[in-house]
Amino acid sequence: MIKPLLMLAALILPLTATAYPSENDYGQPTDHKLEHLSKMLQLTPEQKTKLEAIFTEQHAKFRAIHEESHARIKEVLTPEQMQKMDEMRKEHMEKRQEKRGALKPNQP
């Protein structure tokens, strides 16, 4: 029972993080998504302000869900399993960062 739960958590938690705006160094949602929508949909300043509030709220809710899920998973797993899961998540994040870096154009 624990192995399927561990695999599920290891697969789902990192993937759900990509569905939401990423964070900059200050822990705030970045506005890349908003800028993209603004250009594609020709948003008014009022619409941009309202969407920014929605994205910020969405980001805060996601963080709360993530923290709650992490705490609940920690209650189920042994310390060794939790350590391994943290290592797996770290490796996944590093690979994701490498892919993001490879997708960005060369900067001067």
UniProtKB/TrEMBL annotation:
Keywords: Signal. Residues 80-101 have a biased composition (Basic and acidic residues). Residues 80-108 are annotated as: Disordered. InterPro entries: Metal_resist. Residues 1-19 form the signal peptide. Belongs to the ZraP family. This is Signaling pathway modulator ZraP. It comes from Methylomonas koyamae.
